[in-house]
Amino acid sequence: MMDLAPWIVWFRRDLRLSDNPALAAAVRSRAPILATFIAAPKDDDLWFPGDRSQSWLRVSLDALAKSLHERGSRLIIRVGAAHTCLAKLAAETGASTVVWNSLCEPNQRTEEARVVATLGIVGVAGCSYDSDVLRNPGTVLTNSGGSYSVFTPYYRAFLRLPPLADPLPAPRSLRPLARWPDAADGKTIVGPCAQQPILSDWEPGEVGGIKRVRRFKAGPISNYDDARDRPGNDGISRLSPHLHFGEISSRQLWQALQDVPASGSYLRQLVWRDFARHILFHKPSLPERPMRKPFSQFPWQPNASQMQAWKQGQTGYPLVDAGMRELLATGFMHNRVRMVVASFLVKHLLQPWQAGARWFWEQLYDADLANNTLGWQWVTGCGPDAAPYFRIFNPVLQGEKFDADGAYVHTWVPELGQVPARWLHQPWNAPMKPKDYPGPIVDHAAARTRALAAYATIRD
Fold it and tell me: Which of 220, 276, 291, 339 has its CB 3.0 to 4.6 Å from that of 370, i.e. a possible disulfide?
């Protein structure tokens, strides 16, 4: 085989070997392949991942390194600005080409542009591919060529496009470099505070993601439409961290589930994930600013003690507190409960949605900028395709409807164990009030009236 210059594959949130277009392109070149992951310095990134995301990432990188080793290759980790690190690696190895899979976040797109510019200066080719979405944000457009801001027409346009291509297989082997650059210690990408244990029911990495898909397909998806809203049941996929880190692609998941009769609602959620990326791509200021401009004048009432009570699961509303405690204990929260706790924060307490979004970002294993931003703006009513401003979840009724047997609340709020089922979601009305559980920090009816008055001041 002729002596080809190496190709560098820059891994990002695509921590898998299968259905990885950038890796597949490098393999087709028949050149030696250097796989690298580059962690940005914390001070350089406004949306630097929280400790839990960093902890998951560390384990996932170990899994990726193992998979690469099994195919005769290595994972080289660097810490710094990507454009600088990639240029140095190219100089060290004589690489002719760098390939990567694009991301939609504003900071990531800025870094990609820097990479292209820097590689051009040093005479190295750079090429990007799409793997984080089902369809590139620039391909699902209105008839006039504009971008959608409402999900349902976006979804219809998505389905009208040609079928998705089949996922790419993982390479059986990778051609190694004749001489490897020094390998950095991967532990340098996370500080000591981020070395948190992953719960036993999670397995970060591509193998863990594939197992989770098989588990979901074999069980919960058959009753997904009903069970997905009941947090006390094992009725959801729990695939969000695997999707966020790209341990499995949304295209792989689409292919695995599209022929399952009960998969329609879940596949629609995969398109919603694309929609979130589509919106962020076209509106890069969304993580900090509301899409609906009048909301920049919303009369928020920041309150540190109420914010702290919400974070710690001490609001006096059992379903809200159960969700917040699940988040603290596990780095995860059921999606139905995410909507309830978010609505409670912004509408019952009138705390800025950005504060809630930031707390989720810091605490969730699956913290995803596009999904997190769109979800919080949807609940608040200030974003694209938003919930009506007058939709204010009643946490008591939500608990009675979706956790009627109390399985979820009993798991996370054990001090309510002796409260009769009739009063579980409104324990302040129980004949014998629990001693170790706080009363409601706000009255629902009064909070609803206050929220509607606040929304009336900025209604557009």
Answer: 276
Residue 261 has pLDDT above 60, yes or no: yes
DSSP 222-253: GGHHHHTT-TTSS-S---HHHHHTTSS-HHHH
Tokens 């690190």 belong to 85
Cβ atoms < 10 Å from Cβ of 221: 24
pLDDT at 386: 64
Q: So what CATH class is 293-456?
A: mainly alpha
Q: How far apart are CA 389 and CA 56, in angstroms?
A: 36
pLDDT of residue 376: 96
Helices then strands, counting H and E runs in the chain, come out as 18, 5
Tokens 């206050």 appear where?
450
Half-sphere exposure of 155 (CA within 13 A, CB side): 13
- If we measure between CA atoms, which residue out of 125, 130, 116, 33 comes closest to residue 74? 33
* DSSP for residue 10: E
Among the four given CATH numbers 1.20.210.10, 3.40.50.1980, 3.40.50.620, 3.40.710.10, the one describing domain 7-131:
3.40.50.620
The whole-angstrom separation of Cα 331 and Cα 323 is 11
Give CA–CA dist 416/430, Å, rounded: 11
**Which neighbouring-strand residues pair with 246?**
none
Which residue shows structure tokens 């990326």? 277
